[in-house]
Amino acid sequence: MQKTEKIRIFSENNEFQHADVLKRNRVKRSKHNKFFVEGVNAINLAIEYGWKIDSFLYSEESKLSNWAKEILNRSLAKKHIEMPASLLSKLSDKEESSELLALVEMKEDNINRIEIKKDLFVVVIDRASSPGNLGTIIRSCNAFGVDAILMTGHSVDLYDPKTIRASVGTLFATNVLRLGSHNDITQWLNTTKETLGEIRIIGTTVKTENTIDTFKFNSPLLLLIGNETYGLNQNYKSMCDSLVKIPIHGAASSLNVACATSIFLYEISKQIYRNSFIVPF
């Protein structure tokens, strides 16, 4: 077991700048394979679900809570970086600075992380363009029993602090993988069908006669969610067994993608879990 290196800094040195750039810069996060995490729930879930912590950052100018002390005492992080409260405040995104920040290592985007089982429920999000929406979808997927989320296309960063914040830390408790395109999904489907047989593929769109309130969902199931502005691209539509919409009334022509996804997840979870499981909400 490695020994934690304890470092004290007093200025915006390399350690500070490294944390700051991981918070702000997607390219640097990808290069270093690490990302910035803030918040009690997020840090607790990262530890609970076995994510590797590279560093904890904190200040002892103010008395640390019992929670923070316990985290540091049990820590397996490579580094503990102590700094003045003024520096910690500069890194924090909160009005009142968090007492503990973390730099966490990314997990490998290995599609073999998905457990193949007869009631498999996977969500594909194509070209997500809002970190807030992506984080909210992750939160809903975690709440409604989704086994994995597959992100494709040019999307917002999964590890953007805004995404993590919108997920309320559930990113760490949810199996989320970043893939290249629909071709990667097709390859995975072909392999998975050898084990499960058929997988029902459902796409979401406003341009269909099938409505969520009358449609019958069955597992194993792949639910395809399109871009916030452009919806599902043609490659994904051609993969679908059925396209389904949410009937809405009033002046709005469509729903926010995170709201719409949550409605789909509720209905699917209710139907699939109803006979054998307690619905997870």
From TrEMBL:
Every SpoU L30e-like N-terminal domain range: 13-101
High-level lineage: Bacteria, Pseudomonadati, Spirochaetota, Spirochaetia, Leptospirales
GO molecular function ontology, one term from the record: RNA binding
Record's keyword annotation contains Transferase: yes
Keywords: Methyltransferase, Transferase
InterPro entries per record: Alpha/beta_knot_MTases, Ribosomal_eL30-like_sf, rRNA_Methyltransferase, SpoU_MeTrfase, SpoU_sub_bind-like_N, tRNA_m1G_MTases_N
Keyword Transferase: yes
Pfam families according to UniProt: SpoU_methylase, SpoU_sub_bind_like
Protein name: RNA methyltransferase
SUPFAM superfamilies: alpha/beta knot, L30e-like
Sequence ranges assigned to domain tRNA/rRNA methyltransferase SpoU type in this UniProt record: 121-266
